[in-house]
Design a protein that fits this description.
2 copies of one chain form a homodimer. Chain A has about 270 residues and is an alpha/beta fold. In chain A, about 35% of the residues lie in helices and about 20% in strands. Chain A contains 11 helices and 11 strands. In chain A, the strands form 2 sheets. Chain A has a 7-stranded parallel β-sheet. The longest helix of chain A has 15 residues. The first copy, chain A, is elongated, with a radius of gyration of 20 Å. The interface between A and B is large, with 50 and 50 residues.
Chain lengths: ~270, ~270
Amino acid sequence: MLGRERLKRLAALKEKKYRRRYGRFLVEGPHLIQELAMSDWPVEWLLLTPDRAKDPALRQARRKLEGRGASVALLSEADMARLSEVATSQGVVAVCPLPDRSWSQKQLASWRRVLLLDGLGDPGNVGAIIRTAAWFGWDAVLLGPGSADPYNPKAVRASMGGLFFVPVYEVSLEEALEALLTHDVALWAAVAEGGRPLGEGVPVPERVALLIGSEAAGIRPQWLKRAHARVCIPRLGRGVESLNAAVAAGILLAYLSGLGPKTSAG
Amino acid sequence: MLGRERLKRLAALKEKKYRRRYGRFLVEGPHLIQELAMSDWPVEWLLLTPDRAKDPALRQARRKLEGRGASVALLSEADMARLSEVATSQGVVAVCPLPDRSWSQKQLASWRRVLLLDGLGDPGNVGAIIRTAAWFGWDAVLLGPGSADPYNPKAVRASMGGLFFVPVYEVSLEEALEALLTHDVALWAAVAEGGRPLGEGVPVPERVALLIGSEAAGIRPQWLKRAHARVCIPRLGRGVESLNAAVAAGILLAYLSGLGPKTSAG
């Protein structure tokens, strides 16, 4: 069993300050634990309620995680509820180290599809976007200042495991753009209006970085002006002013992943 | 000012049971009120806190709504907080009648793009999907049993006004499919895997109804078997098992709205 002190420290991981201080984050719920087991993400602890420990669906995930060095402990329902971020705990939580990723230009040479987020503050949207980037096999997601912490429990849950399969970096957009542009990656900026409408044969570059801003503020001008192309999702109806950020990102990621018109790159 | 009894009845509109009983729903926040003013949706009451009543940005919306017959009343911050669905009320709420729409085959002849949802229980996703359908100018959104109430405050907020611009019907899927198929509308079913992958030149029919199921359960077999085509969004990465329902719907709606490959309909 875990002691009171350790349990208190783990519960504190729901807050960003303590995630940074202790270098760890929480992964909650059977589905995410199974995704975690399929990934090669390091795991320190697997914590289960006695009921959940009997769940045959989790047995394989547990074996895999133990094989990778995770310790397993049982927690009472009451203790589990203290770690849980949701109203009704699902009885299983993993404690993982934050990734030891420093922004380096080294990986860049092999990247073909990179997503950059400028000021996306909603953790649910950030998680859903990471999920989509993982689905389409993008090479990296770069989070600029003002974006939600991807290790926030809501973001982790919304990523539905995507976080374990696409590398996510928190970056200075200045440095990241500089590096991408030096490596001949085309920079596309998503704008609400006034860009080239997708669907009209906008050719998809061989290597592309897609920059998305917040629903309310869009991309900050200093980054927008560095883009090679401004693209927008054509509005064909009336009334609504914008799309949900995760939905817009999904449409753009799909388009750039080969679901758009087949035209050769210009 | 509104009396205690009326205020209590209005606060009850946060629950579906009372929305049905009183035939009304709430629209909250300045952005949604402005969208409401741009639409032709009937409005009974516009309720403002004294502070918000001074807001110049809302003046035009208020004039429009008064012109359409809405009564205006001031509410104290405390009373407004009782109506609000969010932690920090934004000081403005409208009371609208539920639409008097009965499912009728009459409109069908002019519909070219129709979205059907089977069992989408999350109000945030349902709202975001309505927002996307309005953005792309779809003709109708049909909600089958098990889908979230589109007049739920969370769904209204997530729709960002889309609810006022695309007709939403709660239907029996049996009846709706029967009517659509009789009218020669092609039925596409979105499946997680095993369908024709979008992007490989799947031709878009002239008139199409897109059927989407829940993330967990998918489309029920009795509806799935009636589809002319099963389509899926190709998974190009690894790890994640599905996309967020609103994101997947967005990608499919975009594709069917002309952002996919340009091929003539088969």
